[in-house]
What we know:
There is one protein chain. The protein is α+β, with helices and mostly antiparallel strands and 163 residues long. Among the domains are: 1-46 and 60-83, SH3 type barrels; 133-158. The protein is 34% helix and 30% strand. It has helices at residues 106-128, 131-162, and strands at residues 11-14, 23-30, 35-38, 43-48, 58-63, 65-67, 71-74, 81-82, 84-89, 92-97.
Amino acid sequence: MPKLKIKTGDNVKVIAGKDKGKQGKVLAAFPQENKLIVDGVNVAVKHQKPRNAQDKGGKVNINLKIDVSDVQLVCPSCKKPSRVGFKVVNGEKVRFCKKCKKVVDAKVSAEVKSQVKAEAKTETTKTEKKEPAKTTAAKTSTKATTAKTTTTKTTTKKAEQGK
């Protein structure tokens, strides 16, 4: 089964054909045919007939397939169209930009971000251990205030009924 270096959701720039220079997001990939559907690229007009009384007929724009060799991936970090390479990071095969050498795959970038967040959480939990004691005291005082207002309301109601 052939593998594509461009995946669904990637931003690409058209480098050949009638839509040369346009950029768009990949809506679908067809590795068997070596083709992609890119939003706003290779658009055809389909004349659609109304099927029943509620449907409207008319002209509908449809995105057609474009060959993979006619597009280049736009790197999310350097924002330039570039070729894609593969390398192994943390035991996983990932895609990287050949111009800026940064990893393109969001999955791996998310893992790196999650590791940074995990480290930040361990630091914040150390400081938060002291704070919960203060918040429980505040909650208790809130409950006591609520109880006082309830008893005040009931005593004022009884006093009004007694008049």
